[in-house]
Design brief:
Elements: H1 2-29, H2 35-52, H3 56-62, E1 65-91, E2 94-121, H4 124-132, E3 135-137, E4 145-147, E5 164-170, E6 173-174, E7 184-188
Parallel strand pairs: 4-5
Antiparallel strand pairs: 1-2, 2-5, 2-7, 3-7, 5-6
Amino acid sequence: MKMAGFFRKGSLWVAVAAIFMVFSFLATVSSAKTAKEINREANAALKLFSEQVPGGKAFLKASKGVLVMPNLEKVGVGPVGGEYGQGALRTGGKTVDYYSLTGGAFGFTVGAEKVHLILVFMQEQAFTKFRASSGWETGVDGTVTFIDKGKEKALTTETIKDPIVGFFFGEKGLMANATVEGAKFTKIKR
């Protein structure tokens, strides 16, 4: 009996330690990047996107705006995780605002990785609503349709008509089953 109680308490301490580690990590990566750094990383992510995602160039060309979150940090320890990044909102090829993304992830994850996130605003109304918001949360303020590995074969601006289309990708192309449900995008000054 006493041993079972110890393991329950031990599990609680492990969870608390995991939460502390995740948020300590996120605090260290959250250092403010300059506008120049964000734009340089965004340019590199857009180039990689155009090269690796079939139909990606057509989506960028047809968009009303594009939010590029390069080098998004995702970290998890056991049942707790989080993500953080800074990026550029562009329209007509020019940066108009800068944003940060913060979010928590639940489910069993271990480790850390860097990925790129691109949100393509296909409708003016969705783009305008995003820009007018002081803190836009996925699933609450708008829905993002994610294109992942396997769906990319049917990826055209003719077949995908959603207001906001999202892409998670890394050095090896699109990621499977990626989402930012519940993540919050906040405008930042640079």
